[in-house]
Amino acid sequence: MSALDLARGQFALTTIFHILWPILTISLSAYLCVVESLWVRTGNIVWYRHARFWSKLLLLNFTVGVVTGIPLEFQFGTNWARFSQYAGQFFGNILGFEGAMAFMLEAGFFGIVMFGWGRVSKGVHLFATTMVALGSSISVFWIMVANSWLQTPAGVSVVDGKLAVTDYVSAIFNPDMPWGVSHMWFAALETGFVVVAGVSAYYMLKRRNSDFFLHSFKLALVLLAIVAPIQIWLGDGSGYDVFATQPAKGAAIEGHWHTNAPGTGADWSLLAWPNQAKQANDWSLEVPGMLSMLATHSPHGQVKGLTDFAVADQPPMLPLLYYAFRVMAGVGFLLMGLAFWTSYAVYKSRRQPDALLAQRKLLLAWVLAIPLPYIAVECGWIVREVGRQPWVVYGLMRTKDAVSNVPASSVSASIVMFAMFFVVLAASFFIFARKWLKQGPDLTLVPPADPKRADPNSTAIGY
User: Fold this and answer.
1) Which residues cross the membrane (predicted)?
2) Who's near 230: CB < 8 A, 6+ residues apart?
3) What is the mean pLDDT of the chain?
4) Adjacent-strand bridge partners of 284
5) pLDDT tens readout for residues 406-437
6) What does the alpha-carbon distance between residue 195 and residue 217 come to, in Å, rounded to a whole number?
7) Which residues pair with 158 in a beta bridge?
8) Lowest mean pLDDT among 16-30, 120-134, 341-355
9) Angle in degrees, 0-180, between the axes of helices 371-388 and 360-369, rounded to the nearest 10
């Protein structure tokens, strides 16, 4: 394999592994904001114990996320030096903004969130939790700004063979940015709420601390009932934007080969097997005229086919791209349906809490649903990144021109090293997560005494 193939493989490996952790950090920190706010507002000790319980999972995710994110960014200098030289004036600045504005904010307050109980007032602790959630959300913003700019570059011009920024506002708020940022942020929220609901359902299924976990299950369910439909709407808007700004990617996602004639609708293939060598689908199950509605929101909207583009400009690995999109969309609809179905079941059992515990198949469905949002996020990134190929900066720089001049053997060695390191990290996480799950919540915990009232001479933070 060439250095280019290996560099792409290494970046795929590190990205696919890294993204597993930040999405839960983003959502759990937001969830903890809600939980702590309920405690501060109501004084109900249950919410305090929930904050202490779920913060342990946040600590595990945050730690692994930080460790796996560092080598990911270093690759821009090691494996993709030509890209960094060409686009670094904007892309490098944005990654710097993410580190300075987001990670530092998140990391700076994280110690207070984990170890500030009893050392700061509960108002200050809630503020620290909010800053961690804000920092993680700002991180989503800057990372997706950088990635969206690769999809739809704007605000730059070529000067002496490099991209120079001519309009920072246009570059940051490029056409893909609103959809990319919002779709990713809601995907992260949905992931965390499913994890909370799934873990809660696990305890309820085992009849362990059922009353305690009924609180977190219902709260996660309420949040999911809000987030899941919004995510579906954002997915539709994001797809509409793709067909407008990256028509080759849109056609590849839908296995659409030939542009529909004026006055006719483009057929949508529900299932197919795209064959790039034949420039056609081997087989296809189609819905007449539906693709025009999905891609243009018009019954006779014109949708460009892949044959309108040179083969060299078409995305590769079409079956992977085609089915990754369908898995992502299918999971989104499945989770929304599960959330609504369960909401109805909770409503019916509102006067009989034990009735919900008796629905073991429903609780089991939530336990089995835990991996689904992760799968959807990974598939979404496959669609986003593979669909952009063969460009690293869409329409400006091809991926083959972005790779560093390094021996393939060096890249191979680093892939092996990263793979071994990731196995150790994953194993460590699951060992500690299993211990956390087995131990369960500490129902003897009581909120620490107000540090000011406990010691009149205290100089505790927040007073």
Assistant:
1) 20-41, 53-74, 94-117, 124-145, 184-205, 212-234, 320-341, 362-383, 411-433
2) 186
3) 88
4) 272
5) 888 888 888 898 899 899 999 999 999 999 98
6) 10
7) 163
8) 341-355
9) 30
% of the chain exceeding 70 in pLDDT: 96
Q: Is residue 3 over pLDDT 70?
A: yes
**DSSP-derived secondary structure for 21-61:** THHHHHHHHHHHHHHHHHHHHH--HHHHHHHHHHHHHHHHH
Residue 200 CB coordination number (10 Å): 26
CA 366 – CA 363 distance, rounded (Å): 5
Q: What is the CA radius of gyration of the chain?
A: 24
Q: What residue spans define the domains of the chain?
A: 17-174+409-453, 185-406
Give the CA angle between residues 387, 10, 421 to the nearest 5°.
Answer: 135
SS3 content of the chain, % helix, strand, coil (to 5): 70, 5, 20
Q: What angle do CA 378, 381, 387 make, to 5 degrees?
A: 135
For 135, residues 6+ apart whose C-beta sits below 8 A from its C-beta are 102, 103, 104, 105, 106, 107, 108, 109
Integer Cα distance of 386 and 381 in angstroms: 8
**Tokens coding 76:** 């821009």
